[in-house]
């Protein structure tokens, strides 16, 4: 049978102006022009601007995705061009015009009226180009040129593969998040870091401005001002003694207005504190100085019709809200960085997030990444760069650059509780050094230095991936014990299956009832039984099916909930009520 093109409910109702919502809720300006919609595109064999274009592409969907209207893969060595015109009104243009890209995979050059205004490498992080000097009155021509080597190079590629199969998925390339413009004065606020200090009832605000000037910080509860401070550099805002905490049960967010002489930006934050402490015999993850069990799912962030790109903002909300409705309180964002609106929805809905760094490096040595760990050889030293596919210095340098970019980009997201710099030895190297650096860069969150195996003894948690067999906890005196992947149980709904002929699974059930019975027994054996023995977090695989991998709670098109909702709610309620001290 042929592969199915499955549409999500939101993809079935797509308009020619998708994803029009403000793309960066953590840093909002009134000045905003959304550039999503139809652009011209061409795929060529060289870097020179094409004379003729192949047709239209619906931005921000990658050409490989059904929703783009292209359905064609960009191969390594080829070039993908985008083209559109811009006509800016006098009312929009201030002193500086900024062109923002949520993400472009992977190597990108941006041209305005033939002038190269930006070069960016890395397919997961946002970037901005100052296009002021390239603009002219009337019509302007915007061209974006992209190359993407997917898994044929050391560049960051996540779970994309030029030979998709099993747990490796269809690659995508080019623009895959919103493109938009904003206009600012010469003296403007470029960025801000917001650091809640829960124990001292204050928040530290570190704005970065284009010129040296004072910033006023106004904290708002809705529309009501509750705190205020101003200054340069680090600004400490004292919160009310009875400030409102943020938690999954009560995800309260304060608004934060930043004001300078000529600029104004609206942000938000939550008063919360992540960490870990010993309660009784065991170390536990904590939120606001209290123990909390992180009961989560692996979230790949793939869509049957948009690949990396959700077809609408409602689709982003759907995954988060449905998992919360089922009683889960955490999502591990797996080997991908989402649009900033996804994190905003986690912040406002109350969903904890563990954030993976997307993997890269050259071709994996499967003995070390897949086979050896499953038979007990799971502590190979990651200073051996060759067997971990990071032998090139430029590959390791690229990782450091993009990892720091990711941490800066996501720093103000209230819901992110854990950084995960490496997963299952996929391009892992110097994990202890990375973990130590991460804790220095961001002491407000915990770190899983090497999720799954090839444990180097660093980070804050003892991270275990267990499939195929019952869980046996590996004790650790200095780290919190967490089951960071497990399950992967399969029930295949043929009508909603991407590949009817093939199934990638860890354990398959022929009926939906058998699947749910098996899932119930799994949680009773490997989670509920072990919480009292020190287990402090779990990550079930996974939120939805992805192509051949049909172990999701939802089908790939998000149309069928395979798990018994009442059954999983009862289990999750038992987990939430389990004693942690």
Strands in their spatial order, largest beta sheet: 27-26-25-24-23-32-29-28
Overall structural class, as computed from helix and strand content, comes to alpha/beta
CATH architecture assignment of the largest domain: Alpha-Beta Barrel
CATH class of the largest domain: Alpha Beta
Biggest pleated sheet: 8 strands, parallel
Mean pLDDT across all amino acids: 96
Distance between the termini: 54 Å
Low-confidence segments = none
Percent helix range: 10-25%
Please report the number of helical segments.
Answer: 7
Strand content: 25-35%
Q: Find the CATH superfamily of the largest domain.
A: Glycosidases
Write down the Rg: 24 Å
The outline comes out as: globular
Q: How many beta-strand runs?
A: 32
Which fold name is given in CATH as the topology of the largest domain? TIM Barrel
Number of domains: 3
Describe the protein's architecture and organization.
By secondary structure, the protein is α/β, with parallel strands linked by helices. The chain folds into three domains: 11-184, Jelly Rolls, CATH 2.60.120.260; 189-269, Immunoglobulin-like, CATH 2.60.40; 274-577, Alpha-Beta Barrel (TIM Barrel). 16% of the residues lie in helices and 30% in strands. It has seven helices and 32 strands. The chain has helices at 313-325, 340-349, 366-371, 393-410, 431-441, 512-531, 565-577, and strands at 33-34, 37-44, 55-59, 79-87, 96-101, 104-105, 107-112, 115-121, 127-130, 139-147, 174-175, 179-184, 189-197, 202-209, 215-221, 224-231, 235-238, 254-259, 264-269, 274-279, 282-287, 290-291, 294-299, 330-333, 352-356, 416-420, 446-447, 461-466, 480-487, 489-491, 507-509, 537-541. Strands 27-26-25-24-23-32-29-28 form an eight-stranded parallel β-sheet, covered by helices on one side. A hairpin with a 2-residue loop joins strand 20 and strand 21. Helix 1 packs parallel to helix 2 and helix 6 (512-531) packs parallel to helix 7. The chain is globular. The chain starts with 32 loop residues before the first strand and ends with a helix. The mean pLDDT is 96.
